[in-house]
Amino acid sequence: MSKSSSHLTIKDIAKLSGVSKSTVSRVINHDPMVKEATRNKVNAIIEQYQFTPSKSARAMRGYGNKVIGIIVTRLESMSENQAVSSMLPIFYQHGYDPIIMESQFNVEKVEEHLAMLKDKQADGVVVFAFTGLDKGVLSFWQNKSVVIARSFPNHMCVCYDDIGAVTHLLEHLYHQQKQRNIAFIGIEQQDQTTGALRYQAYLDFCQLHQITPNACLGNLSYLSGYHLAQTVIKSSPSAIVCATETLALGLHKYLHEKQLNNTIVASIGQSELLRFLFPQTLSVELGFDKAGTYTAHELLRMLTDEVELKTVTIPCQLAVNK
Fold first, then answer.
1. In 3D, which of 32, 302, 266 has the Cα closest to residue 168?
2. Residue 206 contacts residue 183 (beta carbons within 8 Å)
3. Does residue 322 lie in a domain region?
4. pLDDT score for 276
5. Which residue among 41, 85, 113, 249 is least packed, with the fewest CB closer than 10 Å?
6. Where residue 14 sits, what CATH number does that domain have?
């Protein structure tokens, strides 16, 4: 190497050691998660070249010693909050400072946030994906990021079982509760997961069991759930499946105002608010907290070792109300 030992950087040490830059950083910071063999190899190179890390390098980040960026779509999203809440204790435990940012379903905002995190030398990122977000945006972070809610080739992704969740609810309503007039309120199909996949699962079930579809699609808000209820209720359904817990809250408000207390409400996802206000809601747990825990552990593993980049689907299950 042409550089003198006094001018070596962490990048140079990483190249000489045959590991990533983040691994060298973790060895320097005495991260206990680094494998002993890897630690010994890096330390040997550091000793051989008498490398001394710049005292100002980490301070220049401005956010502490170790940083992980978390880009959510909406700060008020109950499902994403559940996932983030389960991540934070794990990151804190391992000495990372999380930075939480909001994309508002805007690709340009994601690009801006990622550029800032790159500039601040963040160690890794978690991105809650949405329709329209391309994997190319994440190319720099391919080996130090986890994508939630969508599957990208050659990336570590954590997805929810959208089709299975709808099917679980419909099978329970149809087989256990003997419901035959089941409506659906959901999200416009431009949204590939919460929208298109969940709506198609409803249509497929209706076709299989010869049920006349009664569905209405809108946006992801309480008000949308309230207004969509006015349309589907015209056919007097005995049960209504909601694509999200947010829509379910809006539906409940409408049914309460119209005193339609015998209509069964079923929801994909169950927030603490929905469970508190309407404990009778039939719901499927998508495993938001499990997704957050899995994401945190996988990202930490990625930052210390080579891992297989794959898509993992979190299993869903019917919620048991107590």
1. 266
2. no
3. no
4. 92
5. 85
6. 1.10.260.40
Residue 172: pLDDT band (50, 70, 90) is: very high
For 38-63, b/e burial (b = at least 16 CB within 10 A) is bbebbeebbeebebebeeeebeebeb
Give percent of the chain with pLDDT exceeding 70.
91
Residue 321 lies in a domain: no
Q: How many CB atoms lie within 10 A of CB 236?
A: 11
- Kindly state whether residues 243 and 133 are assigned to the same domain: no
User: Given the DSSP bridges, would you call strands 215-218 and 182-187 parallel, antiparallel or unpaired?
Assistant: parallel
Q: For 221-254, how does the pLDDT look when each residue is reduced to its tens digit (9 = 90+)?
A: 999 999 999 999 999 999 999 999 999 999 999 9
Q: How far apart are CA 125 and CA 144, in angstroms?
A: 7
- For residue 292, being part of any structural domain is answered with yes
Residue-wise pLDDT for 91-140, tens only, equals: 999 989 899 999 999 999 999 999 999 988 899 999 999 989 998 999 99
Residues 269 and 216 in one domain: yes
Q: Which helix (H) or strand (E) is 219 found in, with range?
A: none
Residue 320 lies inside a defined structural domain of this protein: no
Q: Are residues 171 and 219 in the same domain?
A: yes
Full domain range(s) for residue 244: 162-285
CA terminus-to-terminus distance, the chain = 66
Considering the domain architecture, whether residues 276 and 172 belong to the same structural domain is answered as yes
Same domain, 101 and 215: no
